[in-house]
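User: I'm writing a short methods note and want a consistent example. For Porin, opacity type, I'll paste the sequence; you return only the structure tokens, no commentary, since I'll be parsing the reply automatically.
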Amino acid sequence: MLKHLKVFGAAFMLFAPTLGNAADLYEPPIVEAPPPPPFIEPAPASFGGWYLRGDLDYHWSSLRGTEYITYGGSGGTDRFDTTKLKGAFSLGAGVGYQINRHLRADLTGDYWFKSDFEGSTSGTCGGGSPCVSTDKSAYSALLLLANAYVDLGTYHGITPYVGAGIGGAYVMWDDLENAISGGSTVVHKGSKNWRFAYALMAGASYCLTQNLNLDVGYRFTHINGGRMFEYASGVAPGFDKGINVHEARAGLRYQFGPGNPNCAPAPQVVSYEPPAFEPPVYK
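Assistant:
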């Protein structure tokens, strides 16, 4: 009997650790989740940069008034009864700098092609008889301006703006042909001179690429008055009292460097998703 108990006790001691391990809960190894990606503050938008621009426009001009000197018994000053200037095209170019997201400035030069002038006068001719005349000429101009603009924010790639410019215009009048009804034609040599000018602008630019903008807008330009034509046959010099010009403009602006900040794409937010939870496995 004692012998059997010893055998049973030895067997129990042999198998007891195995039975205890079998009853334990199996736990998978702990895998730590990777830490979330570090937050990197986006670099500030790149402001500033030189740009070049080119423009095409169609403009309509109007004279603020005219006068000319006459000589003789009833000499003095007189003016055209009617004046009309036809529309014309112009080409422009410039260089500028984007100071920040809302402010830029540039220097521009525009050449206005000839705008035809038609006028008429009335008075007395030789012998005191009344007569009328028709007058034809044309003017062209070189306009140089220093401009500043305020960009009013960007909406779906469109940036409206307002601006102003100041500078000068070199106005070139062609010879004036004064044709008297039933009589001869008198030619007055046209005058050329520099004059003060200013401009007011409004428009919008559209982002075509990171460096290229389409610019469409309106510009009002005022040119001070000046000499219009020279003396001939007892009349002149003649003067215009200033020219007002309305311009419909379109052009391109190419910005060097990192690109236009108003064209920068919206930052992409990358979300972090922790790994899926794995339930414990029992065996």
